[in-house]
Amino acid sequence: MEFSTRIIHEDNIEDGSGAVMSPIILSTTFERGEDGISYPGGYFYSRYDNPNRHALENKLAKMENGAACVSFASGLAAATNVFQSLKSGDHIIIPDDTYFSIRSILDQMFGAFGISYTLVDMTDHAGVENAIQPNTVLIWMETPSNPSLKITDIEAIVRIAKKHNCFTVADNTWATPFYTKPTDLGVDITLHSTTKYLGGHSDILGGALIFKETNERYERIRAFQKLGGAVPSPYDCWLLCRSLTTFVARMPIHSNNAMQLASYLETHPKIERVLYPGLPSHPQHSVAAKQMQNGYGGMLSILVKGDRAAALQLAGELKLFTHATSLGGVESLIEHRKSIEGDASPTADNLLRISVGIEDIKDLIADFAQALEKI
Ligand SMILES: Cc1ncc(COP(=O)(O)O)c(C=O)c1O
């Protein structure tokens, strides 16, 4: 069966009532069997596992062609659990333009435990290899990156990692399995902030790790999930499973809209530059064309001609694009990244990040046209 059919029909919960849609099992505890020892339903306490979480994890593992999925209460809880699986003295390679909170986690939480990192431009393969130290254990990827939309050649980085016995993580939040499947390209762990496109409606916070193999690291992270307890609620799991059923319907609209908006903005005299991997002008367009299927995703960034004030003014003049953080919902959002990332961030002052929603593209372009006239 094809991907879209399986997401709808497999891994649903049947409670004997004949309900067509899965129920939500809110119970935190489950009854023991007659022997006083066993748990005939397969569950005993919801921090350990819950039917809705189980269904979600099975669906996400299938979507990414992985062997198993471990879900979390947020994307950053998922990232934190990967770092918790390391040991003191380990070193990591991180993209120089990684989502800024990944660096914050390492600086504020893991530095004290002796875990160090080096920031590297992931498009410079020799630079990645040169940054590997005897204690390097992990190479982290994020493609397209947030917010500069750099594309990492996943297969090339996996080759380097394997040569040096490192494991790999790819944050696939922006590409989603609709456009890229890191597992198929050799990545050990695929990370998602399910808050974004998988949730799709800006109303669920969640995260997930999908494992290529159920190896020792998987077992450790699974144990940390159950013991640490940063787990998603049954309701969030249920809502996310619901969102996954429309995933393949939503994604092409995001991408077609983003491509058209990027093409429009690229020719506009008040826009200095558009960063979108689908544009031939994008520096890694050929890597994106090789690695991404079905399109190039719904995210783009623009550099507005002028300074921070011009960028903020443009964001303020838009009527359909809400000036707010986050991405991946059906509604279009725009954000001035530097003001959320802080002054130390390398993000340009005139950069606006756009999450292109699934509204009619004519309305989205008309909104930009009226806003650009005013600045
Ligand atoms: C690429 C990427 N990874 C991870 C995260 C963190 O996810 P969450 O906010 O669900 O913790 C984000 C959030 O914006 C993101 O854009």
From TrEMBL:
A GO BP annotation: cysteine biosynthetic process via cystathionine
Gene3D superfamilies noted in UniProt: Aspartate Aminotransferase, domain 1, Type I PLP-dependent aspartate aminotransferase-like (Major domain)
Location of N6-(pyridoxal phosphate)lysine modifications: 196
Keywords associated with the record: Pyridoxal phosphate
Keyword Ribosomal protein among record annotations: no
GO annotation, cellular component aspect: cytoplasm
Extent of the signal sequence: none
Keyword Repeat among UniProt keywords: no
Pfam families, A to Z: Cys_Met_Meta_PP
Record-level Gene Ontology MF annotations: cystathionine gamma-lyase activity; pyridoxal phosphate binding
Cofactor: pyridoxal 5'-phosphate
Family statement drawn from the similarity comment of this UniProt entry: Belongs to the trans-sulfuration enzymes family.
Protein name: Cystathionine gamma-synthase
The species this protein was found in: Lacibacter cauensis
